[in-house]
Amino acid sequence: MKLHVDRIKKMYAVNAEAIKNIYSYSLPGIYDQKLSRAFEQWKAEAINVSTLQEGDKVIVFCCGSGNDFPHILNKIGEKGKILGVDFSSQMLNLARQKIVQGGWSNVELIEADVTKFKNIPNTPFDAGVCTLGMSIIPEYQKAYHNLLAHVKSGGEIIIGDIQLIAGWRLFLNSRIIYRAKEFGGSYKGHQNSRQIFAMMEKQLSHIRKQHFYNNAYVYCVGRKR
User: Fold this and answer.
1) pLDDT tens digit sequence for 76-106
2) In the predicted model, what is the mean pLDDT of the chain?
3) Mean of the pLDDT values across residues 111-131?
4) Domain holding 143: CATH number?
5) Smallest Cα–Cα separation from 109: which of 89, 126, 123?
């Protein structure tokens, strides 16, 4: 078993250059078609259990093609605002198409590395969102803490991602990693997800957490102290 796990770790390590290539060349244009519809339901559930309300300002890290936007807009309405941040101009082009089609005048996009992005000072957001993003970032802790830094005290952090399965379902990890590899998934990345959720439970208050897909996909919602 240990040799099998070591082989998985070696084959599927987080690789920043590979992630960049995947989201610049391989996936744009087919991303929405290939992503399981189940993720849409899980994204919606995470937003629905949040305390987002009309007029809130929300920052979305790793916004990609903008799949989180409709669920957020259902809560914050036309008076709210979304700022989407992603490193891939190609994925942001997909998001722009959704913005035009939806007529969303209150959604802004910025191309930037979420580990380094700095917003205008003294303009904290009411909530920070990141789904299916943290697990493909080598410097995931920087990204997580940067997301927190952009949210006001008492605001919410909403993160959903794939994590490694523990316990008797451990044997399913190799299958999940294999299926997620196309999207930048890796053993190390999904291991990092568990660390992020642990940090959220330790650092935030009013935690709401839900597991799906044999505990492989988790969303966690918490309030910044």
Assistant:
1) 999 999 999 999 999 999 999 999 999 999 9
2) 92
3) 91
4) 3.40.50.150
5) 89
CA distances from 41 to 8, 97, 193, 201, 217 (A): 29, 21, 20, 23, 12
Domain that residue 24 falls in: 2-223
Q: What is the DSSP letter of 84?
A: E
Rg (CA), the chain: 17
Count the domains in the chain: 1
Q: Detail the DSSP E strand segments found in the chain.
A: 57-61, 81-86, 107-111, 125-131, 151-162, 205-212, 217-223
In tens, the pLDDT along 131-166 reads 999 999 999 999 999 999 999 999 999 999 999 888
Structure tokens of 174?
């190799």
Question: In which order are the strands placed within the sheet that holds 57-61?
Answer: 107-111, 81-86, 57-61, 125-131, 151-162, 217-223, 205-212
Structural contact between residues 110 and 84, judged by C-beta atoms closer than 8 angstroms: yes
The residue type at 106:
N
Residue 7 has pLDDT above 70, yes or no: no
d(CA 194, CA 114): 19
* Rounded Cα distance, 26 and 86, in Å: 16
